[in-house]
Amino acid sequence: MGVSAAAEATGTAVTGRTAASKTAASKAVTGKAVTGKYETADAEGMCPYRLVIEHVTSRWGVLVLMELLERPYRFSELRRAIGGVSEKMLAQTLQTLERDGLVHRDAKPVIPPRVDYSLTDLGREAAAQVKALAVWTAERMPDVDRARRTYDEARVEKTRAR
């Protein structure tokens, strides 16, 4: 039963209500708070591919994938290669990408401990897609700049006309 039908069946018409009351009504019926077409209130309940897209295209995820596409790295050298990332954020990003099956963590039992990070086959595939987007962005940046100027100029003209 859909959220609307379920809401009608329980005597709670969803039409015309606020987003908060729609969310509450859907949660009462389905047990999950629906907030949009592709998501629910809890991250794990999101559309399955949405979280992976968020991980791959996150600020640090993109840079990690691009660097690891070149070669395996130890944690500290990867941090230096990326630059500007805290230890905590890099560790979280690597752990998330490892959980998604994109990064392989190889901890060697030596003293001092040595941990190498590399891409899995799946990770290489994702990194190649990210790299293609980065190349496209670099090639098309003049067009983006031109579009931004046009947009900004139109906004200024619209503001003056008021």
What can you tell me about this protein's structure?
With 162 residues, the chain is mainly α. It has 2 domains: 3-41, no CATH class; 47-162, Winged helix-like DNA-binding domain superfamily/Winged helix DNA-binding domain (Arc Repressor Mutant, subunit A, Orthogonal Bundle). Helices cover 64% and strands 12% of the residues. It contains 7 helices and 5 strands. The chain has helices spanning 3-9, 19-30, 48-57, 59-70, 75-82, 87-99, 121-161, and strands spanning 34-36, 39-40, 73-74, 103-108, 114-119. The strands form 2 sheets. It has a 3-stranded antiparallel beta sheet with strand order 3-5-4. It has a two-stranded antiparallel sheet with strand order 1-2. A hairpin with a 2-residue loop joins β1 (34-36) and β2. α1 (3-9) crosses α2 and α4 (59-70) crosses α7. The N and C termini lie far apart (49 Å). Mean pLDDT is 81; it is low at 1-30.
Radius of gyration over all CA atoms, rounded: 23 Å
Helix and strand element order = HHEEHHEHHEEH
The CATH superfamily of the largest domain is identified as Winged helix-like DNA-binding domain superfamily/Winged helix DNA-binding domain
What is the distance, rounded to the nearest whole angstrom, between the alpha carbons of the first and last residues? Answer: 49 Å
- What are the segments in which pLDDT stays under 50 over at least 5 consecutive residues? 1-30
**Strand order in the sheet with the most strands:** 3-5-4
State the oligomer. Answer: single chain
| CATH third-level topology of the largest domain | Arc Repressor Mutant, subunit A
What's the number of helices?
7
The CATH class of the largest domain turns out to be Mainly Alpha
Binned, the helix content reads 55-70%
At CATH level 2, the architecture of the largest domain is Orthogonal Bundle
How many strand elements? 5
What can be said about the biggest beta sheet? 3 strands, antiparallel
What amount of the residues lies in strands? 5-15%
Structural class: mainly alpha
Name the average pLDDT.
Answer: 81
Tell me the overall shape.
Answer: elongated
The structural domain count equals 2
